[in-house]
Amino acid sequence: MAVPSIPLSCALVLEDDLPVAADLCDAIESEGLLTLLVSVNDSSGAVSLIRQDHLLAVAVVDISHPRSTTYAMMDLLRAEGVPTVCVSTDPSISLSGPYASLPLFTKPLDFCGLQRIMRDIAVKRGHEAALGGARSCG
Q1: Fewer Cβ close by (within 10 Å): the C or N end of the chain?
Q2: C-alpha to C-alpha distance for 4 and 131, rounded to whole angstroms
Q3: What is the pLDDT of residues 79-109, one digit of tens each?
């Protein structure tokens, strides 16, 4: 009898600033979700992860990099049905057009807010059991 495969749910973190990436990964992992860290500049690595069926529960994308690269990644994430959360070093940045409705956190990041967004996404997608970390932010 074949054992059914259980999809692995991870969060893709596209970020180049290693201290920020570490903090993002810690905040996400505290909610019980594994993280995969990829440099925003590694578009081929990111694309191969995004195209893995059922691998990604959510993506966190640093939009402070060239817009053509980050928006191409966000377009692919949307096409693959992966919810996306955006982060930026620029507090005056805004998202336009089809990206305007995406959650956006500017640095310094509100990690409690990010954790709440992760829980909301999990509930909306029916994966609330996948999240269950410390919930230190309430």
Answers
A1: N
A2: 22
A3: 999 999 999 988 888 888 889 999 999 978 8
